[in-house]
Amino acid sequence: MNSISTNQDFQTANSLIRTQAYVNGQWVNAASGATFDVINPATGDVVATVTDMDQHDVRQVIDVAHNAWPAYRDLTAKERAAMLKKWFALILENKEELARLMTMECGKVLTESRGEVDYGASFIEWFAEEARRIYGDVIPANTRDKRIVVVKQSVGVTATITPWNFPLAMITRKVGPALAAGCPVIVKPPSETPLTALAVSELAEKAGFPPGVYNTITTSKNAEVGLELCENSKVRKLSFTGSTATGKLLMKQCASNLKKISLELGGNAPFIVFEDADIDAAVKGAIASKFRNSGQTCVCVNRLYVHDKIYDEFIGKLAKAVTALRVGNGLDVDSQIGPLINEKGLDKVKRHLDDALSKGANIMVGGHELEGLFFQPTILTGATADMIIAQDEVFGPVAPIFRFSDEKEVIEQANATPYGLASYFYSRDINRCWRVAEALDVGMVGINDGMISTEVAPFGGVKESGIGREGSKYGMDYFTEVKYMCFGGIS
């Protein structure tokens, strides 16, 4: 498969490309006419030029969604589910175009982009089914002349702010339950990857969602648009995935009207290999979890703890596997590691690496910046707790290795960060598996498994890794309000 390198070639190859915002069932420009460029991180080429909305534009979009809410929430669950099922089918029918579009704007390799289309679509299918299971309760009354009923109702207009590293799945994981529950949605993708979001909007329109129910705003003015979404009282729910620092700011801004929020924030995932582990399986899990999307995922392994007894064997096998990874443009079929998203991301990787080397770490594999935004997959040995990389997620293809000899010690080290999103460990002792899984202070644990994300399980963290859960039956609750109704005077 040949790489596409120019904007003209790309537009010819992809019928789903849209460059305007999608509002009230129409493709619209910003009132000011402003635009911004979307850059392919693998080549530096301009992929497309997209509408750049401001706070005034977004305020009007909120009004549109608010006006669409009463009619949409009054649809039956079966009617909403039918639209979601059609949307699910359309996403899969357009899998290849969506995958290529995703790779062009975020850089991940094409095999991963195809996997993300499947993963993202799975949330639409799941919540289409869950729409008919938003159950309430009948509670035994406290007196004979009363009846107590509890129902769950749509929370209202929902704004979603999504990240660039999963341009499709982070949208569907949020809007799937919102739409199933009867909430109109406003999707704000990042300026790095708006094209996938707009393509998904095109398919939502074809699926039959009424005008105003599904809206996508594109903007480079993140601060002012985010403030409007937080402080506008017509937005009843905000769902955000991104950095902890930004999540704290949004939470503070939402406090002005006590908006319901869900925050999926930063991580610093430990990966522990105990002396009784299946070493080959652990190496495979480490590669899958650490180097997926060039290490740019919130649940990526950030710290690898390896027991003294199997340290040399493990790092020898890991080094061999990492050395074999092929770096290149995500559209090239042989590529396994794509570029970092931008210069800021590349600078962070280099800063973490320089700090680690200055404090005694050694490069075992990789360690070099390549042309453009590419960086070699890297293994660091001799990592210690005083290094920046031990506390701050590197968000790049660098794997620091820490040695340990005691179970209690390694659990303390694994928990010694402000974050608590995901963790992983490998052991064949069933008693240890239960003991360690319960002791790790995180929202998700992979036990002998490096790939834990699925639509059927709750995704989310503790501590400074966020608030709330996405996916699974638990994910629906964050888009509903519980109403208690007391019927009195019954004889």
Structural description of this entry:
The structure is a single chain. The strands form 6 sheets. A 7-stranded mixed beta sheet has the order 14-15-16-13-12-18-19, sandwiched between helices. A 6-stranded mixed beta sheet has the order 9-8-7-10-11-21, with helices on both faces. 52% of the residues are buried. Helix 2 runs parallel beside helix 8, helix 5 packs parallel to helix 6 and helix 10 packs across helix 11. Helix 9 links the parallel strand 10 and strand 11. The chain is of the alpha/beta class. It is globular.
Instruction: Please give the share of residues in helix.
Output: 25-40%
Overall pLDDT, averaged?
A: 96
Cα-based radius of gyration, to the nearest Å: 23 Å
Task: Identify the strand order in the major beta sheet.
Answer: 14-15-16-13-12-18-19
In the predicted model, the low-confidence regions spanning at least 5 consecutive residues are: 1-7
Shape: globular
Describe the oligomeric state of these chains in a short phrase.
single chain
Portion of residues in beta strands equals 15-25%
Counted beta strands? 22
Question: Biggest β-sheet: count, sense, barrel?
Answer: 7 strands, mixed
Number of helices: 14
Strand-pairing-aware structural class: alpha/beta
CA-to-CA gap between the ends?
75 Å
